[in-house]
Amino acid sequence: MRFLRVKKVELSLILWMLYIGSNSLMAQAISHYNFDTDFQDSSSSANHGTTVLGNISNDPNEVAVGLGALSLNGVNNSDVDLTTPIVFTATDPWSTAFWSKRGSITNNRGMVMGDTSNRRDYIWLNDHATTNGLLFKSSSNASLDFTVVHDLDYHHYALVADGTGNLILYRDGTFQQTVSGDTSFRITSIGNGFDTNTFSLHGEVDDVQIYNSALTASQVSTVYANGTVVTPPSNNSPPGCARVFLLAGQSNMLGFGASSELPSPYNASFPEVRYWNGANWVDLRTGFGRATDFGPEILFGHILAQALPNDTIYLVKHAVSGTSLYEDWAVGTGVRYIDFMGRAAGALANLTANGIDHEVSAMLWLQGESDAAEGQGAAYEKNLRNFIADMRSNFGVNLPFYMGRVRDFYGTPAEATLVRNAQVTIANTTAHCEWFDTDDLNPLVSRGHYNANGQIQIGTRYANLYLDSGPTKTYRSWAIGQGLDGTSGMESGFADDPDSDGMLNGVEWVLGGNPQLNDHGANSPVLANGSTPNNTFTFTRAEDSIGRVNLNFEWSIDLVNWNHSVSIDEYLTGSYPKTNGIVVEVDAALQPDVITVHVPDSLSAGKGLFFRLRASE
Question: What pLDDT, in 10s, does the model give residues 519-546?
Answer without folding.
Answer: 654 456 666 654 456 788 888 888 777 7
